[in-house]
């Protein structure tokens, strides 16, 4: 395998304000954590190339604002996304209860019916849990989504959260297209000189 990138996947991170969406992206893309992570206004965007089971794919990760007043461009965030990570904070029950609304947004604005969805219970490093692992698991089972618990602070579960979404996208027919390969787009030198001669040299 070379450096070829098989495909580019658009993945959204959604959920209530303060659950750790930006922190999960920062941990996954830059392996970093900021205890004073600032609030997201509108949308933040990062790319990362990952190798999944020997195949390179490029991820375009869209970190959306949890706060309603910063969500003016919602439909364009969702357009063509192949995967979505729905985040709640295990120490805040209300963020878990809002997951239904976030799933509903995906239904309304998502343009790919078979989008891969992952529910993520974040901040498991904290001692004051309000939601158990089982609560998250049951929700995910009911809505047929993937599920994992994470800590953006310690990095536990973060890599799996993103990688499992990518695997799910890859195994879903019709959800993605291969990136055009450079050797099929550009004719090789010998082909080019041949086609030059067959269409032009014979006219001379
Ligand atoms: N202890 C702990 N704190 C976290 C974790 N993830 C995020 N935080 C903190 O929680 C706060 C909010 O995190 P953000 O990543 O800004 O949350 P967000 O969901 O992007 O928030 P919005 O931009 O408002 O939508 C910040 O102070 C983070 O440092 C975690 O796993 N553990």
From TrEMBL:
Give the EC number(s) listed in the UniProt record: 3.6.5.2
Q: Which domain of life is it from?
A: Eukaryota
Q: Which GO terms describe its molecular function?
A: G protein activity; GTP binding
Name-wise, this protein is small monomeric GTPase
Check the record and name the NCBIfam families matching this protein.
small_GTP (TIGR00231)
Enumerate the CDD domains for this protein. Rab18
Catalytic activity reported: GTP + H2O = GDP + phosphate + H(+)
Phylogenetic lineage: Eukaryota, Metazoa, Ecdysozoa, Arthropoda, Hexapoda
Recorded hits in SMART domains, A to Z, give: RAB (SM00175), RAN (SM00176), RAS (SM00173), RHO (SM00174)
Family, as annotated: Belongs to the small GTPase superfamily. Rab family.
Q: Which Gene3D superfamilies match?
A: P-loop containing nucleotide triphosphate hydrolases
Instruction: List the keywords (alphabetical).
Output: GTP-binding, Hydrolase, Lipoprotein, Nucleotide-binding, Prenylation, Protein transport, Transport
- In which organism is this protein found? Phlebotomus papatasi (Sandfly)
GO BP: any one term: protein transport
Q: Which residue ranges does UniProt annotate as crossing the membrane?
A: none
